[in-house]
TrEMBL record:
Residues 1-14 have a biased composition (Polar residues). Pfam families: LRR_6 (PF13516). This is Uncharacterized protein. Residues 1-40 are annotated as: Disordered.
């Protein structure tokens, strides 16, 4: 199986567009990346996040960007797209977002109508707890924040999140 075949149908249909944003796509386990792809780089697929935000957001305002191998380098593009979208439910689960990228996204969420943010299974640590709490303390729209399966393990940090954000259901 080639790397192109392992890409989801939605992202595969966008590959021909002139995109500024890139998504690194790893080949299936045990397979080597092709020698060269259209972009001229190893294992790189172009991903046009603005187009995905426009075309894949459901009529009810849900957008699933889980398992897209998104990292901190995509956080800035995600935040820009959030400003101009009417997303209510955003899943960024099982990507490669760390404290830095999540900090950018959480700050952007404060100025949106997002009600449910799924960040489970990323690379978020306890270092980001203070910035998450600081940004979301005054947020009026967010109702659910899923931070499960990340690096937030101490009871102190879990309690800090839940106690400082009583208006948000925080899943840890």
């Amino acid at each position: 199986m080639s790397t192109q075949q392992s890409v989801t149908p939605q992202s595969h249909s966008l590959q021909g567009e002139a995109a500024k944003h890139q998504l690194v796509v790893n080949p299936p386990p045990g397979e080597k990346p092709p020698a060269k792809q259209q972009s001229g780089q190893f294992g790189v697929k172009k991903l046009d996040l603005p187009t995905i935000f426009k075309t894949q957001t459901s009529p009810t305002g849900e957008l699933d960007l889980s398992n897209k191998n998104l990292g901190d380098m995509h956080a800035g593009d995600i935040t820009k797209c959030l400003k101009y979208s009417m997303i209510r439910v955003l899943s960024l689960a099982k990507n490669r977002l760390t404290d830095e990228g999540v900090g950018q996204i959480v700050r952007a969420i404060c100025d949106t109508s997002v009600e449910h943010l799924d960040l489970q299974g990323n690379k978020i640590t306890e270092k980001s707890v203070d910035s998450i709490v600081g940004c979301l303390k005054t947020n009026k729209s967010l109702k659910v924040l899923d931070l499960s399966n990340n690096g937030i393990g101490s009871r102190l940090m879990k309690n800090k999140l839940k106690n400082a954000l009583p208006h948000i259901e925080v899943l840890l």
